[in-house]
Amino acid sequence: MTWETVIGLETHVELATKTKIFCSCTTQFGGDPNTHCCPVCTGMPGTLPVLNKKVLEFAVKAGLALNCDITRYSKFDRKNYFYPDLPKAYQISQLYLPIARNGAVSIHTDAGDKTIRIHELHMEEDAGKLVHDPWIDQTRADYNRCGVPLIEIVTEPDFRTADEVIAYLEKLKETLQYLGVSDCKMQEGSLRCDVNLSVRPVGAEELGTRTEMKNLNSFKAIVRAIDYEAKRQIELIGEGRRVVQETRRWDENKDATYAMRSKENAQDYRYFPEPDIPPIELSQAYLDGLRSAQPELAEEKRARYRRGYGLPEYDCRMITSDSALARFFEELVELGAPPKQGANWIMGEVLGALSARALEPRDMKLTAPTLARLIALVGEGKLNRNTAVKVFEAIFDTDVDVDAYVKEHGLEQVNDDGLVREICARVLEANPQSVADYRGGKEKAFGFLVGQVMRELKGRANPQSVNAVLRELLGG
Amino acid sequence: MNIDTEMVDYIAELSRLELQTGEKQAMTAQLEQIIAYINVLNKLDTTGVEPMSHVFPVKNVLREDEVVPSQDRAQLLAGSPAEDKEAFLVPKAVE
After folding, report:
1. Final residue of a domain: which of A266, A285, A304?
2. Which domain holds residue A435?
3. CA torsion angle A396 A398 A402 A407 (round to 10)
4. Residue A341 and residue A351: Cα distance in Å, rounded?
5. Average pLDDT of span B68-78
6. Residue A260: pLDDT above 80?
7. Contact flag B56-A279 (C-beta cutoff 8 Å)
């Protein structure tokens, strides 16, 4: 029998607000345990949570970008569970009237284009961190993360392959980063993903029993967990056994999933309307305002770069893979850099330098005006491309004034034809063997001679003019 | 809804409570009374009445996204039954 894997995703995304969702404590990552806490986020009796305006705005912006219907009258609900990562013994979330529903995201894989439906998007608070201390056999609770704002984005079971899941997550990450609502750093837990997976015979209508996998904190882990879990379920059914609906944890070291706790048992959340948070009613004017302020997203940028600048699809994708990088590119072009040259510098030197330093584009010191000036100097014939790359490497970490740097290090391109001619003549005189080889038909000898001239001129000559002069002196 | 020992055990488990046999019996009786009272309320005809989730007619209570210094940690931990000057201590909860 041929099997089909059916996958739905629940993605938690941490919003990039300054403060927590229901109190004014900072959301900054890290910090000593329990130093970003107050009576509200530690669930002290008698405190009153108040919703952060920015959380609402970010959630609506995300909903709009994911093509959702925004819920004009929305409420919070109380999800009850007794576990020490949540000092109130309940999480304030949204069940009955989530802020956004019925969205759609288009994804692209090698298998073609596809639309993933979004079931809903809701706001909720993050929980604290528990670390067990084996010395005292007690668990230490740190509530710094407690109350950090999250949106949870739930898809319909529309995925069939791990490729589709990754394409969706990349699109989601890109969209939310462009909106500026989240940095989506997986390594800091600001994008976390639960995978619901079942299998069924190809062609079957009915869904199989699903398991939910948690603790997937990298794209690599997601792909491996999907492969493992689909295989496990198909084997179970093949042996005549059945899949049990349960939550499973991915163990990266063992490359396997294992059952956490039975769903029937612990997941009775007894939701009820949250009395502490009054309902949210959004006006048409509010929605119109946010809609008109939505930034240009990556897909629109790619289309514009293709049409407006004539950039190849590959270049467009590379540049828009990060919103800070796309902004950098647009600034270069605004400053007069030819788009294709700007793109080449970004895809080659900039991405190379960032990757060598394990830096994100947003952390780059080098500014667009500096690189634009460097590109202009090459264009004006004042620097050759090789020297420009050396300058780039030298100033990448400091962003100094390009003109001053070039002057100080005597790197200007030698455009003095007389000087170039003189050096060429001298090199030919000093290398009669190579000259003879060249005349005898060895093209390689020519390259050697060019190299010698460039060395004499400390790499500052324009390679084209050196070529031309040498050929002329060698008699064409 | 019928309150029996099984139901009490289930609720106790969800609340992480360990009840002794005597306590279980007392709980069963008390919960039965509560449910009986709710059953009386349920007899009221509420056709056409909108469910109410909030008592006061307020909406859109929001605050600006501006950081206010957090509470002093020592003060925050002071009310806790067990702490180690940095974290709250609770019985083993992590798998």
Report:
1. A285
2. 417-473
3. -110
4. 14
5. 95
6. no
7. no
